[in-house]
Q: What sequence folds into this?
């Protein structure tokens, strides 16, 4: 599926489609290797803007050895304007301690650390994040086969404890996915091998609304801080 | 038990030590004696890393030494934690998996004061961070009085690597090293007092085998020269002689591993080629001509274009000669020659075909006629026999004569029972083949192999009866294309015949009447009724015990050969000699360990007769390998003896136990680390992680390890930090299986700071991919693309890159520094659904019907882009299922996805 963002971006403005590079990065040899995506200099806070809500800071281990506080101040400047904040670390020295420090700084200040061992690799990360801005995660997700039964199995087994045999039972009893979804509790319960609990799980999956309203909240948060994030 | 075995045991008992014993000197007896010295009243004895076959050997040996002896109890996952604790408290000897014992020790299920001692077998495998070392350390920190004993029968394993022996001893926390080489005075005298009679038989290789072997060695040499040119490896060890050993890979690997990513594809290829060639050299001697050819074919098909060696000059010779050993192409110029050749070849490749009724035969002959005259060539099957076979048979006959002539003074019965023959060969395959050889004779055996070869070939070409005239040439470059093609055609024709024959056999039950032709390449036709009977007998299926009883009593030809038991050396039965008690042993494939076992057996029964026949191929790699394996063990022991003399061992090694305490690197800013002094740092660790070394290293760092079963993550550092640990290989694997995506998803759901830990190994290069793998374009399969997708989809996932195990442990300590301690109870519950399907602490579950959302996203046509709008526009899946197409199209932003979804929902479930 073509990413919708990229399509509209092409018509909007040129800079939408390009990596924005901070003028601080002038002379960085990484720029020479960015070939698959266009890039332009711009006045931006991070070193690279890789999409509407992604940015990257660039750091080499050697530079960090000279300026150990640099990364921290750069991250602080970013504030909370980006959803994805990458620290791209060029590992030009195989020493443990500085990488340690970079890791810790990035981790505690909400940045995703990516390490690269060559300038080409650095450039490839920048390009790829830009290119994949709106790409679905299919490439790293579990793949399902495209035939009907595998798809049906994949869909129905998202309900806990439903196994492949149950899928076949449900399919042959009700004839189609739509009929399975609209089946009543009694009908579901009549299927061999589908016990009381499975019936309830299935029925809840089909009939409970996708979004629960506050009334339906059945469990209060237990000690773990709530994380405000919509499912992707 | 022999004197020296008692000596070994008593020295071990006197003082905690690491005993290194030469291979084959009766490890089960030594272990059994150690177990017998322990009684359950004195507490618990743990036996670690005892593999299954040795366990069996140990049990039998215990039984043999003392019928009433208490057998050690095997602890595995069948027992629940409570049951294990109960068993430990009762005392006794336990064969236990290290992983289980570590967890039990950490959970304090082991009564440390009751543990009398620990015996670690295979000590040469130990490292400072392995589970066994962890166990020893945990034990020592709680119990200073008990004993720890290490045993190893792999001297070589202790000499490879830097200070290997010292490190092993340090892991065991022992100060003494006992060495028991074969040349040790007491061992040598014991074994050489009444040695077995040895008959050494050198069998010459056939000229073509010798030529193939030389060609292989030549190609190897060429590859090695090429490898030397790369200047990446130390040349000294790289000789063809070394190349014949498995350890050669280790040598090369050890040198190349740290720079593995920098070396080019060609060098890697060369390393792989050398391995292939080494295998070829071995198989040349082990497999018969047809099987060897089959193997060569597979090798060529599977690595044809990629490998370098196939294109070397002598490589061609290997292929040609291997073929010549099996079949030849004969030009059929004159009519008479043709018919003769044809007949011969038919006789060979058809075998039972002639037993069919006449009409069919004639019809077939016509077919064949047409084909042959068209091509003008025929296959003549040579099918060279293995030279050892003949000698083997002769030996058996000799033994039989001896058995029959000898027993003048002895009563017949006792003589017969003693006159047992044991044949030791490399694997069951060889055993099976030898058995068939004796049953059927070489010609029949080779014919069967040849038919199998043709059948396999036919299958490969997808040949059926109909398209048998179709000739396809292989993709590989045939050097003499014209000749090659002719040969190919002839071969395929032969295939077709066999296929046809097979079909016929299937359709018509094989008739017993009719004359039968048994043929081999010598153009002989010989009706042979007795032979037929033998061949019709089902081949005795080989039992997986490795030693197969073959009673030839009923078979006609049996008077010539005595009953024989086969023993596959690979099956590693420690007590095979004791259980069979042979007077004759034929060592078909020489093996150092087995030779020692025979020596020990003879020393145990000095009055018994034991005659040993050794079969070697002259001028072959086999003999060289056998001699070198002895040489290498001797050298290893010599090295160990030298090292022992100059070894530096701290006097208080046993006191050098790090007790859990705050790490030294406590920052002085936090009031001198006072907080840490109050209680230990804790880390919740998933049970499954105990197969890795990290828990051990963390413990060394002074952290408290809480082993539990975790649904989410591998390590929980604090209520907020959860870590999924991946080695590089794991990382690649879990990316392609989609597992990592799922793990990242659940971690982000339950923890504020989900961490993906990418852990490199200390001795390998520090990079994800080699420079030449980066490439110029964005490739979806590249690791960079996958990492990018991961960070894009999980912006909250923190990635930690760790250089090594120890770096990880340090990182964990820093990450924990100002966090609360994790709660094992809570960590265990995370991600485990409660009865009503809700998951504790799952914030999303409170706002969303997660199962329904998950199912929705798995439906065809639903994408990351449109599923939210679907959720807005329709309440539940049930509602979705009855939604008309138009409305779906609106919600899903297009006709196409809506069509896909609607079609899927309405599709009729296929009847099965």
A:
């Amino acid at each position: 599926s073509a990413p919708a963002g990229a399509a509209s971006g092409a018509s909007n403005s040129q800079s939408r489609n390009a990596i924005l590079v901070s003028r601080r990065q002038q002379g960085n040899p990484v720029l020479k290797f960015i070939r698959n995506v266009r890039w332009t200099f711009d006045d931006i806070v991070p070193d690279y803007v890789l999409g509407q809500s992604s940015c990257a800071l660039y750091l080499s281990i050697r530079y960090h050895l000279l300026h150990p506080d640099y990364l921290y101040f750069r991250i602080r400047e970013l504030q909370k304007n980006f959803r994805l904040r990458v620290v791209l670390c060029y590992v030009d020295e195989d020493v443990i301690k500085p990488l340690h420090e970079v890791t810790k700084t990035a981790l505690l200040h909400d940045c995703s650390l990516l390490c690269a061992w060559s300038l080409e690799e650095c450039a490839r990360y920048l390009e790829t994040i830009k290119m994949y801005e709106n790409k679905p995660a299919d490439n790293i997700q579990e793949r399902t086969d495209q035939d009907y039964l595998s798809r049906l199995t994949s869909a129905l087994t998202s309900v806990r404890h439903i196994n492949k045999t149950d899928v076949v039972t449900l399919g042959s009893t009700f004839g189609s996915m739509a009929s399975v979804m609209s089946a009543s509790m009694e009908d579901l319960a009549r299927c061999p091998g589908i016990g009381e609990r499975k019936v309830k799980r299935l029925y809840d999956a089909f009939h409970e609304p996708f979004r629960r309203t506050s009334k339906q909240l059945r469990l209060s948060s237990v000690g773990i801080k709530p994380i405000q994030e919509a499912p992707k | 038990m022999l004197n020296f075995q008692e000596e070994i045991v008593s020295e071990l008992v006197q003082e905690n030590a690491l005993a290194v014993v030469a291979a084959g000197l009766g490890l089960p007896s030594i272990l059994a004696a150690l177990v017998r010295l322990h009684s359950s009243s004195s507490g618990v004895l743990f036996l670690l890393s005892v593999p299954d076959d040795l366990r069996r050997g140990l049990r039998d040996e215990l039984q043999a030494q003392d019928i009433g002896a208490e057998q050690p109890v095997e602890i595995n996952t069948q027992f629940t934690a409570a049951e294990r604790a109960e068993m430990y408290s009762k005392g006794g000897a336990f064969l236990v998996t290290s992983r289980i014992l570590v967890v039990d020790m950490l959970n304090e299920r082991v009564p440390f004061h009751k543990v009398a001692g620990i015996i670690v077998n295979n000590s040469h495998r130990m490292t400072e961070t392995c589970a066994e070392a962890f166990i020893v350390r945990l034990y020592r920190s709680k119990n200073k009085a008990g004993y720890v004993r290490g045993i190893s029968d792999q001297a070589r394993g202790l000499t490879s690597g830097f200070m290997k022996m010292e490190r092993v001893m340090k892991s065991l926390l022992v100060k003494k090293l006992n060495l028991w080489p074969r040349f040790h005075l007491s061992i040598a005298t014991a074994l050489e007092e009444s040695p077995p009679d040895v008959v050494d038989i050198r069998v010459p290789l056939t000229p073509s085998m010798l030529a193939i072997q030389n060609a292989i060695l030549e190609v190897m040499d060429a590859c090695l020269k090429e490898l030397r040119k790369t200047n990446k490896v130390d040349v000294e060890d790289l000789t063809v002689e070394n190349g014949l050993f498995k350890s050669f890979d280790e040598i090369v690997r050890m040198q190349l591993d740290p720079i593995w990513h920098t070396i080019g594809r060609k060098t890697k290829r060369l390393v792989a080629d050398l391995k292939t060639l080494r295998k070829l050299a071995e198989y040349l001697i082990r497999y018969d001509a047809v099987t060897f050819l089959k193997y060569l074919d597979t090798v060529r098909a599977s690595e044809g274009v990629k490998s370098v060696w196939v294109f070397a000059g002598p490589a061609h010779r290997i292929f040609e000669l291997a073929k010549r050993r099996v079949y030849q192409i004969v030009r059929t110029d004159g009519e008479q020659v043709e018919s003769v050749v044809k007949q011969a070849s038919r006789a060979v490749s058809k075998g039972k075909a002639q037993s069919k009724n006449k009409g069919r035969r004639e019809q077939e002959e016509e077919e064949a006629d047409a084909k042959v005259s068209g091509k003008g060539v025929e296959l003549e099957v040579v099918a060279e026999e293995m030279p050892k076979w003949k000698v083997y048979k002769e030996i058996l006959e000799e033994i039989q004569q001896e058995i029959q002539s000898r027993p003048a003074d002895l009563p017949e019965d006792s003589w017969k029972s003693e006159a047992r023959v044991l044949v030791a060969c490399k694997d069951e395959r060889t055993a099976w083949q030898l058995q068939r050889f004796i049953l059927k004779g070489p010609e029949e055996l080779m014919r069967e192999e040849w038919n199998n070869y043709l059948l396999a070939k036919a299958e490969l070409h997808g040949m059926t009866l109909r398209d048998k005239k179709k000739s396809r040439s292989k993709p590989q470059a045939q050097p003499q294309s014209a000749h090659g093609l002719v040969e190919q055609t002839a071969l395929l024709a032969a295939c077709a015949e066999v296929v046809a024959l097979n079909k016929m056999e299937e359709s018509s039950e094989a008739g017993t009447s009719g004359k039968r032709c048994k043929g081999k390449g010598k153009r002989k036709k010989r009706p042979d009724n007795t032979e037929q009977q033998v061949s019709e007998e089902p081949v005795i299926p080989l039992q997986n015990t490795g030693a197969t009883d073959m009673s030839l009593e009923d078979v006609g030809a049996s008077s010539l050969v005595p009953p024989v038991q086969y023993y596959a050396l690979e099956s590693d039965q420690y007590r095979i000699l004791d259980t069979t008690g042979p007077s004759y042993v034929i060592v078909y494939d020489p093996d150092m360990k087995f030779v020692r076992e025979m020596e020990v057996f003879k020393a145990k029964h000095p009055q018994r007769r034991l005659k040993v026949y050794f079969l070697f191929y002259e001028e072959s790699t086999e003999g060289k390998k056998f001699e070198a394996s002895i040489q290498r063990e001797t050298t290893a022991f010599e090295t160990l003896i030298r090292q022992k003399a100059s070894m530096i061992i701290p006097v208080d090694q046993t006191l050098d136990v790090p007790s859990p305490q705050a790490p030294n690197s406590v920052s002085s800013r936090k009031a001198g680390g006072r907080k840490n002094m109050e209680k230990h740092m804790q880390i919740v660790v998933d049970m499954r992680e105990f197969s890795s070394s990290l828990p051990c290293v963390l413990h060394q760092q002074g952290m408290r390890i809480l082993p539990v079963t975790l649904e989410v993550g591998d390590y929980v550092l604090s209520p907020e930090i959860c870590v999924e640990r991946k080695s590089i290989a794991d990382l690649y694997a879990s990316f392609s299986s989609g597992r990592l995506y799922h793990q990242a998803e659940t971690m982000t759901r339950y923890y504020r700071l989900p961490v993906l830990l990418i852990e490199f190994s200390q001795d390998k290069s520090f990079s994800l991919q080699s420079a030449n793998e980066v490439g110029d374009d964005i490739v979806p399969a590249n690791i960079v693309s996958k990492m990018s997708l991961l960070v894009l989809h999980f912006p909250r996932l923190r990635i930690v890159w760790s250089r090594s195990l120890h770096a990880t442990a340090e990182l964990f300590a820093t990450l924990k520094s100002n966090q609360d301690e994790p709660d094992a109870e809570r960590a265990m519950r995370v991600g485990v659904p409660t009865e009503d399907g809700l998951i504790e602490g799952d914030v999303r579950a409170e706002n969303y019907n997660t199962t329904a959302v998950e199912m929705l996203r798995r439906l065809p046509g639903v994408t990351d882009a449109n599923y939210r709008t679907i959720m807005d526009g329709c309440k539940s899946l049930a509602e979705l299922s009855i939604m008309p197409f138009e409305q779906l199209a609106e919600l899903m932003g297009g006709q196409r996805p809506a069509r896909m979804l609607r079609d899927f929902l309405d599709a009729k479930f296929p009847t099965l």
Observations:
- The CA atoms of residues 281 and 647 of chain B lie 40 Å apart.
- The first helix of chain B runs from residue 3 to 14.
- The radius of gyration of chain B is 34 Å.
